[in-house]
User: What shape does this take?
Amino acid sequence: MNLKLHVWRQPGPQAPGRLVTYEATGVSAEMSFLEMLDVVNENLVTKGEEPIAFDHDCREGICGTCGFVINGVAHGGQKNSTLCQLHMRHFQDGDELTLEPWRAKAFPVLRDLVVDRSAFDRIIQAGGFVSINTGTAPDGNAIPVPKTDAEIAMDAASCIGCGACVAQCPNGAAQLFTSAKISQLALLPQGQPERWMRVENMVAQLEKEAFGSCTNYGECEAVCPKGISIDFIAMLNADRLRAAFRVDREPRGGGGAG
Ligand code: SF4
Ligand code: FES
Assistant: This one.
């Protein structure tokens, strides 16, 4: 099949960008979308032109590195799928596709389809971990965890940090990502000692970054490749309230167990 691609080209963070049109010819239905772009790039390099920059790593839907917008939809619109798992059989011969980077103030464009998602790293650094020295691995049955809690925690833990939720949100909000990272620990016994300090510190960092506010559009859930539910945002908000009203709460950023 043959496709027409309108691709956002931007040589650097401060440089102006524009859409440039390319023809992708002889595309096999079995190719992944990124393999199709690899072929387009090989042709560009052969002609002495700059290849299109895009992020990718595992190409198996597990690392969260890939991601851009195709015709206005983050990751291309295939339900519960990352961009690297999107295949050309979902497109028709003659399709015209517009490829743009994540559009969010908190994710500045670095080059072409590549954005800076380090704001997510800073949210994790603010508390998205268990800081207790656990020593050697404990026996798997030493701390009983109710099965439903374990399953919901695993659902939250499936967030791969891709940023599609932010890109699709009309507000550019990062509540779905942050709530998944908070909930995966808040639901387990190991996450309890720092639970209240964690939610306060991570939300404080979220608010320092250039993300917008959540107003429950639900676009994040619709494009999330891991099907993360906006129920986790409700859990985040509930934990924020409970943290704020705890009489024995640690001061924000304070040490020790909360
Ligand atoms: S919540 Fe979903 S869309 Fe957002 S970063 Fe995690 S995996 Fe990606
Ligand atoms: S490249 Fe790893 S999830 Fe797409």
